[in-house]
Design goal:
about 70% helix; single chain; about 450 residues
């Protein structure tokens, strides 16, 4: 009964404006996927897989594809804000939905704090004073306040800013990819040496596949998308295709430009310097800074919508669900997220929480895939509902990929995640004492 009631009340009109296009959703996804990682992954991938490493990026795209296809089907069934929270709540009830939202929030705010610290450290490449402890705190505060302000004044302002940072980020990456394409020798590629030993190949796949996660950022704000049931699946597929092509060609370019790729720090910055001199290094470094900034901006936009959703449903104080009367954004949730992330980054207390990210993400993936039968039964007759080609075969493949990734989860991560979910259970019990039914 609880499941049916939750399902029936999810799609009620929300107070947020529907103004996100398919391109805006793609921006959120591509900035969630292409962050700082690709600037450091090439050397490690080369160490593990050698000349075969460009193919590792292609294989990982094929491995992550079933997971993203499952989310494309799930997203086609919902119009409300919440993403994984909604998918799991329809299938398993309010408690599981709350835990999904709570886990997602903590994992994302922890990642945000880490990337905020990385952004300040990257600024030190151009301005060494940024590494001074006092200046560092001031920069963390300034950047947090700026990101909060942009997110509060409206979704359009955020998307315009995100478009600019995405362009700055992608230009050097596209240039490197174009160089890689110019170096493509199809006969040589077809006769490339055998893959590395199974152990090294497995390690390379586990390393590289995480360059494709983060697409969840585009799922949460469905309540502000113009046509979420159609546009989110399309944005997912575009994000996967573009990132896969870029990654493989960038790896090829790095191999050609850096004979000692394995021993090179900041591989893409070094590749830019070899190719275009000091100007190339500066351009790639600016791309790195823009990449981290875009990731932060998209993360704040999406994750603040999660606490907004929980406030809307009465599972957090109603203060989190407040919408700015002029800008029509969840201003309180954005402000709380910015302050929380700043305090974590300034204190360094996010470090011990960083182990949560991998396991929380995999648990979310598995829970959402497990929710598919219930969602299918609820929305299968909807003309906008996307039915996966191959039926449940895709879902089974997605589960197998997730289980394979779980092999790298540490005991520390398991313990921290159990503790996090225990805290979430306490918060849920407190909220449930005076529970309000979902309103949106």
């Amino acid at each position: 009964m609880e499941l049916d009631k939750a399902a029936a009340q999810i799609e009620i009109k929300e107070p947020l404006q529907r103004q996100l296009s398919a391109f805006a959703l793609w921006l959120l996804m591509i900035n969630g996927m292409i962050g700082a990682g690709i600037f450091g992954v090439p050397a490690a991938a080369e160490r593990l897989a050698g000349a075969f490493s460009p193919w590792v990026f292609v294989i990982c795209a094929l491995l992550i594809a079933p997971i993203m296809l499952c989310f494309a089907e799930l997203a086609s069934a919902f119009r409300g804000t919440g993403g994984p929270l909604l998918y799991t709540r329809v299938a398993f009830g309010r408690f599981v939905g709350f835990q999904a939202g709570w886990g997602y929030y903590i994992a994302r705010v922890t990642s945000f704090a880490a990337n905020l610290s990385l952004l300040v450290a990257s600024l030190g490449y151009f301005w060494p004073a940024a590494n001074d402890p006092v200046v560092r705190i001031a920069l963390l505060l300034l950047l947090s306040a700026l990101l909060v302000w942009i997110n509060v004044i409206g979704a359009r302002a955020t998307m315009r800013s995100l478009s600019g940072f995405t362009l700055i980020k992608l230009l050097p990456l596209i240039a490197l990819a174009a160089y890689g394409l110019s170096q493509l020798d199809l006969p040589a590629l077809a006769s490339i040496q055998q893959p590395p030993p199974a152990a090294d190949l497995g390690a390379a796949l586990l390393l590289v596949i995480y360059a494709y996660v983060g697409f969840e950022s585009g799922l949460v704000p469905a309540g502000e998308a113009r046509r979420p049931m159609r546009d989110i699946p399309r944005a997912l597929l575009w994000a996967l295709g573009i990132s896969a092509i870029l990654y493989a060609l960038i790896q090829l370019a790095a191999q050609r430009l850096l004979p000692d790729l394995v021993g090179t720090e900041r591989a893409l910055v070094a590749a830019g310097e070899v190719w275009l001199g000091g100007t190339g290094a500066v351009l790639v470094m600016l791309g790195l800074i823009a990449s981290v900034t875009g990731n932060l901006m998209g993360s704040m936009f999406s994750t603040a919508r999660m606490s907004y959703r929980l406030g809307l449903d009465g599972q957090l104080p109603a203060w989190f669900a407040a919408v700015h009367p002029r800008f029509l954004t969840p201003a309180n949730s954005v402000l709380f997220y910015g302050v929380f992330a700043f305090l974590l980054a300034a204190s360094g207390s996010f470090v011990w929480l960083a182990v949560l990210s991998v396991l929380i993400r995999l648990l979310l993936y598995l829970l959402c895939i497990a929710a598919m039968p219930r969602v299918h039964a609820r929305s299968g007759a909807d003309p906008d509902y996307l039915r996966l080609p191959g039926g449940w075969t895709v879902a089974v493949l997605a589960v197998l990929v997730c289980l394979g990734l779980l092999t790298q989860v540490s005991l520390t991560s398991v313990a921290a995640t159990v503790a996090l979910l225990a805290v979430g259970s306490v918060l849920y019990a407190v909220a449930n004492r005076n529970r309000a039914e979902p309103r949106g």
